[in-house]
Amino acid sequence: KNEVEQSPQNLTAQEGEFITINCSYSVGISALHWLQQHPGGGIVSLFMLSSGKKKHGRLIATINIQEKHSSLHITASHPRDSAVYICAVGGGGADGLTFGKGTHLIIQP
Amino acid sequence: DAGVIQSPRHEVTEMGQEVTLRCKPISGHDYLFWYRQTMMRGLELLIYFNNNVPIDDSGMPEDRFSAKMPNASFSTLKIQPSEPRDSAVYFCASRPGGASYEQYFGPGTRLTVT
Fold first, then answer.
1. Per-residue pLDDT tens for B4-26?
2. CA pair distance A6, A21, nearest whole angstrom
3. CA A50 to chain CA mean position, Å
4. Cα–Cα 20 to 30 A to B75, which of B56, B60, B83, B91?
5. What is the pLDDT of residues B57-91, one digit of tens each?
6. Chain B CB contacts of A35 below 8 Å
């Protein structure tokens, strides 16, 4: 079974700061997902990646398959980025996702 | 498309009662997943279906939980009898077949068992 570790668990930063959230996993995967969950509960898929780097607006996700590690970066952070960010992995023989515990991000104005 | 639809959005029930959660996946998606989210354990896979067939139910906590997918557009998760420790948010997600791994989540059902 894949073990997914995220760090940090909690992060408070000031508006405008560069944010990095890390994720590591133990078993080879087909894809890694970064998800966002706002208070109130809905889950939104931000990125799905299996290699390299993806960028969407102020969000950047990278993955290093050899190191079994991924990072989610937020540039010019804004209070509306405050949410829980969850790393999830899938594949490697399993279609369902295995989730990290999430990073609770608060961006203060 | 309306996305993944779940009902009810909130359910409050008494211990011992039967609870049925419902999910309508995105049309054309081959896979359907049921996940549970609790404060203690985070998000966990309960069961998933491929083309209406249950593939992996190893995450189903115990025999009180059952899931069905009678057709491509409908799935149910049933808890009978319910217990307070079943209180959680239950998410349904779906994805296309093939090598498209992105999953689309429903809004969730918040279940409270008193």
1. 999 999 999 999 999 999 999 99
2. 7
3. 13
4. B83
5. 989 988 999 999 999 999 999 999 999 999 999 99
6. 105
The alpha carbon dihedral of B18, A40, B60, B49 has a sign of positive
In sequence order, which residues have a C-beta less than 8 Å from that of residue A78 and are 6 or more positions away? A15, A58, A107
- pLDDT value of residue A94: 58
The CA dihedral of A94, A55, A84, A2, to the nearest 10 degrees, is 20
Q: Do B43 and A91 touch (CB under 8 A)?
A: no
- Give the separation between CA A59 and CA B86, rounded to whole angstroms: 35
- Cα A70 from chain centroid? 8
Interface membership of B89 toward A (CB under 8 Å): yes
Question: For the segment A64-109, what is each residue's pLDDT rounded down to a tens digit?
Answer: 999 999 999 999 999 999 999 999 998 655 578 899 999 999 999 9
Q: Which of A94, A95, A102 sits opposite B42 (nearest CB)?
A: A102
Q: How far apart are CA A106 and CA A53, in angstroms?
A: 24
Residue of A nearest to B46 (CA): A96
